[in-house]
Design goal:
The structure is a single chain. It contains eleven helices and three strands. It is mostly helical. The chain has one domain. It has a three-stranded antiparallel beta sheet with strand order 1-2-3. A hairpin with a 4-residue loop joins strand 1 (3-7) and strand 2 (12-16). Helix 8 runs antiparallel to helix 10. Keywords: Membrane, Transmembrane, Transmembrane helix.
């Protein structure tokens, strides 16, 4: 729908894809992309929180549904705080485009040939987002993930429930390792982009091609996660195989009927 083309040094955004072809505003594309990223991170937290809360011995689990709802809403709203800052964008985008050249006087050709969105030219606001708001968002996500993973590891491996059978415990451990692997590989791709941004913020030596390449790797996290799910979870592999078998059975049933029709003719 919309592929982000980010000019990191100029703090500019360009959406490339169907949305741009349909004339959807660059602001809407940027906001929807950030919300999608926040939802991805929140879904990982929800996944591990659900896993840890399913353990009976976990003293930290949230038993009431409304408490869990408020908890996950707060986690989402912490990341959502960056959205209002986007609407503080300069009103005169042409002048802001010229001002942004002070940060990087030689951007790629796409910067001049397309209606890019200059998010901000205020150096104080840029420093606030990059050095305070973004790290707080990352620390918030990391803290909740580490907390729920630690609770699961402790009550599943170090202090397991003795009333559960050994077989059931092994199945729980196997499933936990599966979802851990399922989320770890895509998270590595997402963290790769974060490290690239931090590296450029410190050394200011990253080219646009290198950043585009890192972003392409980051956007591949969905495909990588889908493949990982098929690898680590047997039930999903069997479901995919059954789909293929059903199609084959349907074709086997239809072929004799078609042949019989031609024989009668």
């Amino acid at each position: 729908m919309s592929t982000p083309y980010i000019f990191l040094h100029n703090i500019a955004f360009l959406g490339v894809g169907l949305f741009s072809y349909l004339g959807v505003s660059q602001t809407f594309q940027l906001v929807s992309g950030i919300i999608t990223l926040i939802l991805i991170c929140s879904s990982y937290i929800y996944l591990f929180e659900t896993r840890s809360s399913s353990l009976q011995m976990n003293k930290w689990k949230m038993k009431r549904p409304w408490v869990r709802g408020i908890y996950h809403l707060v986690v989402f709203l912490v990341g959502f705080t960056v959205i209002p800052l986007i609407y503080l964008k300069p009103e005169d985008q042409l002048a802001a485009k010229l001002d942004s050249l002070a940060w990087d006087p030689c951007p790629t050709r796409e910067f001049f040939d397309n209606p890019v969105l200059i998010v901000s030219t205020d150096p104080n606001l840029i420093r606030f987002v990059f050095w305070f708001l973004a790290p707080c968002f990352l620390l918030n996500i990391t803290f909740h993930l580490v907390f729920h993973v630690s609770c699961t590891v402790f009550y599943l491996y170090l202090s397991p429930n003795k009333s559960t059978s050994v077989e059931h415990r092994k199945n729980q451990q196997k499933f936990f390792l599966g979802i851990l692997l399922q989320t770890a590989i895509p998270c590595i791709l997402l963290l790769n982009l974060g490290f690239v941004v931090i590296y450029d913020g410190i050394f200011h030596s990253l080219s646009q091609k290198a950043f585009n390449l890192a972003f392409i790797f980051c956007t591949a996290h969905g495909i990588v996660e889908s493949v990982t799910i098929l690898i680590v979870h047997r039930s999903y592999r069997e479901a995919v195989r059954n789909i293929g078998k059903k199609k084959k059975k349907v074709s086997d049933i239809r072929e004799p009927a078609i042949l019989q029709k031609y024989v009668r003719i």
